[in-house]
Design a protein that fits this description.
This protein has 332 residues and is an alpha/beta fold. The chain has two domains: 146 residues, 2-Layer Sandwich (Nucleotidyltransferase, domain 5), CATH 3.30.420; 173 residues, Nucleotidyltransferase, domain 5 (2-Layer Sandwich), CATH 3.30.420.40. The strands form three sheets. A six-stranded mixed beta sheet has the order 12-11-8-9-10-13, with helices on one face. The protein has a five-stranded mixed beta sheet with strand order 3-2-1-4-7, with helices on both faces. A two-stranded antiparallel ribbon has the order 5-6. Strand 11, helix 8 and strand 12 form a beta-alpha-beta unit. The chain is globular, with a radius of gyration of 21 Å.
């Protein structure tokens, strides 16, 4: 008997993860660096190599013959109907315009389906994570950037140009005048992403050092540990009671919470699932997020749940594999 088997792949700007999915079980997961600076062809070659390695390992350990196919969640705006990268950021130079289905089918000899990586996360959480069993859900990935994926009745909303889900690019009063990585200003990602929160902290430090800063607002700050150099270090400073770090996370969390409340009033999902690096924080981030979210809800949407993602980085792999489920189709 030939069993359907999928190599699920998550392609990001810094690493590529892949694993086998047979009978719904994720296994043989491996991770390799993304050769981003070497261009799209090098990235495609690496995907093909790690895919072949997963197939070889899984075939050797799994009794019985399998018919393999590939499901991919990839960075960039992806047209799932054609498998083409519509647009991409500078984290993957030359990625835009790449025909992933044609290129990887030629390299592997296997059928390929592809979707955006955050959309894959949404599919994964809906299939086996925090939003399983719901009819509608919004997955929000909050970390280096802020993205999203909306699912209703088992269908992924992709929208015109496959661009649906750019949660980080809704306007936010808290981000007024702040530059966003997309080239615009005033978007919630400019104040609520991990790097943006770190930038807020640095602005607060600069302001507090001025002669006009409030007395005792940073008491003992100059005697504190060296300034945090990344979001993880900033989170540690907040947990240790650093007043400005706590304020920076509060500002970012409230901005995102307000944005999600507004989006909930538009889409009215059963649940909003929040994943990504920021979601791993404690109540320093979650408490103001929930408070600001609840404050924006109208009575009709007041029952919308805001919960933490369950699958972590495996969500994209589970979601990529689900592209081969007969019932899974995207909604324009």
């Amino acid at each position: 008997m030939t069993l359907p088997a999928t190599v699920a792949v998550d392609v990001g700007g810094t690493k590529i993860r892949a694993g086998s999915v047979i009978d719904g079980e994720l296994a043989h997961v491996r991770s390799v660096p993304t050769p981003a600076t070497s261009g799209a062809q090098a990235v495609l070659d690496t995907i093909a190599e790690v895919t072949a390695a997963v197939v070889a390992e899984a075939s050797g350990s799994h009794g019985g013959e399998s018919a393999w196919r590939i499901g991919i969640g990839a960075a960039g705006v992806i047209d799932p109907a054609t498998g083409t990268v519509v647009s991409a950021t500078d984290s993957l130079p030359g990625w835009a315009g790449t025909d992933l289905v044609t290129e990887l089918s030629a390299r592997s000899g296997l059928p390929v389906r592809v979707v955006n990586d955050v959309h894959a996360h949404a599919l994964g959480e809906a299939a086996a994570g925090a939003s399983r069993g719901t009819r509608s859900s919004l997955l929000v990935a909050a970390g280096t950037g802020i993205g999203g994926g909306f699912i209703t009745d088992g269908h992924l909303l992709t929208g015109r140009n496959s661009a649906a889900g750019h949660v980080g690019h809704v306007p936010s009063a808290a981000a007024s005048g702040l530059a966003c990585p997309c080239g615009g200003t005033g978007h919630v990602e400019a104040v609520a992403s991990g790097p943006a929160i770190l930038n807020t902290y640095r602005r607060l430090v600069d302001t507090s050092d001025s002669p006009t800063s409030a007395p005792n607002s940073v008491a003992g700050h100059e005697m504190a540990a060296p300034a945090p150099g990344n979001t993880r270090e900033l989170a540690a400073a907040a947990s240790a009671g650093d007043e400005l770090a706590l304020r920076a996370f509060d500002i970012g969390a409230r901005a995102l919470g307000s944005a999600l409340g507004g989006i909930s009033n538009i889409l009215s999902p059963e649940v909003i699932v929040v994943g990504g690096g920021l979601a791993e924080m404690d109540e320093t981030w979650w408490a103001p997020l929930r408070e600001a979210f609840a404050a924006e809800l109208i009575p009709a949407t007041s029952g919308t749940q805001l919960v933490k993602a369950e699958l972590g980085q495996d969500a994209a792999l589970v979601g990529a594999a689900s592209l081969w489920n007969a019932e899974q189709r995207e909604t324009r």
